[in-house]
Design brief:
With about 170 residues, this protein is α/β, with parallel strands linked by helices. The protein has a single domain (about 1-170), classed as SGNH hydrolase (Rossmann fold). It contains six helices and six strands. Strands 2-1-3-4-6-5 form a six-stranded mixed sheet, sandwiched between helices. β5 (about 130) and β6 form a beta hairpin. The longest helix has 18 residues, at about 110-125. InterPro entries: SGNH_hydro, SGNH_hydro_sf. It comes from Amphibalanus amphitrite (Striped barnacle). It holds the Pfam family Lipase_GDSL_2.
């Protein structure tokens, strides 16, 4: 499995157990609404030739003042289609995780929570049949680390179990 995304994907290889056989292609601050990010993700899939990709992205987009959820969703769909065209057989999408930390140029916590709620609702409607599926992800109360953006130790364990379930479910692909 290749995990593509923002800083979550950057940190994932060293935060999860070595037995979790994933490769990661992450971009710190990566945003689905950035053309370069989408192209980079597709290039990573072309190089790695995985059968399964998990997308961990969207939190940075929703934290931007200029984010429009519908545009973000269209760009996410474009990215998933690009991954499938690159030979990926199954794409899993992680729902947008919670966040309590924001840059001064970002949106308020209230606006982010609202956008996250809308985005995750749209993801549940859109990605419920193969080849693109939304992962089941329920963050525990202690999911976030002190920075309010990245997972705590408990959060990484939760993500690891979600990825392991996805790998188990896609073992026959």
């Amino acid at each position: 499995m290749l995990v593509v995304g923002d800083s979550y994907a950057v940190h994932l290889p060293r935060r999860c157990s070595p037995h979790l056989a994933v490769a990661a292609a992450g971009v710190r601050g990566g945003c689905v609404n950035d053309d370069g990010f989408r192209r980079s993700a597709i290039r990573a899939a072309v190089r790695a030739r995985p059968r399964v990709v998990t997308l961990v992205a969207g939190g940075n987009d929703l934290a931007r003042r200029d984010c429009r959820v519908q545009r973000w969703l269209a760009n996410l769909q474009e990215l998933t289609l690009g991954l499938l065209a690159a030979g990926v057989v199954r794409v899993y999408v992680l729902p947008i995780p919670p966040r309590t930390g924001f840059p001064s140029s970002g949106v308020s916590a209230r606006i982010f929570r609202r956008r996250r709620w809308v985005a995750n609702k749209l993801l549940r409607r859109l990605f419920r049949q193969p080849p693109v599926l939304l992962l089941h992800f329920v963050p525990p109360p202690d999911f976030l680390a002190s920075d309010g953006v990245h997972p705590s130790a408990a959060g990484w364990r939760t993500l690891e179990s979600v990825l392991q379930e996805a790998m188990d479910a896609s073992s026959g692909i």
